């Protein structure tokens, strides 16, 4: 709490999106601070900034020497996600069509007549 208070007194609190890139750098550094409250504030601010914070985070990771590890982690995560447009099973082999049984000539008429009688029974 003391660290956050000092930052407010020194005027280092996040501004109203006026200095977007500098604000992202500052929030990224706060996210790595020893103070738990300041880390939470920095992380929340980075999330609020969204994609605008990505270059600052990558720059800080590069300074720490872990950017290569993060990129490897991203690639591993991408491999684990199935492609939504990929086929999950193979298409069946084309073959002769299955034989469909032939209906009697008046089977359709009998079916329609039976359904007509059912509908008439509901209406009475």
Keywords:
124 residues, mainly alpha, 62% helix, 0% strand
Q: Can you walk through the features of this model?
A:
- The protein has helices at residues 2-10, 20-31, 36-49, 54-64, 67-80, 107-123.
- By secondary structure, it is mainly alpha-helical.
- It has a domain at 2-80.
- Helix 2 (20-31) packs antiparallel against helix 3 and helix 2 packs across helix 4.
- The longest helix is centred in the C-terminal third of the chain and has 17 residues, at 107-123.
- Mean pLDDT is 80; it is low at 14-18.
Sheet with the most strands, sense and barrel status = none
**How far is the N terminus from the C terminus?**
79 Å
Number of strands: 0
User: Residue ranges: pLDDT <50 for 5 or more in a row?
Assistant: 14-18
| Average residue pLDDT | 80
Secondary-structure map with pairings?
Layout: H1 2-10, H2 20-31, H3 36-49, H4 54-64, H5 67-80, H6 107-123
Q: What's the short version?
A:
With 124 residues, this protein is mainly α. The protein has a domain of 79 residues.
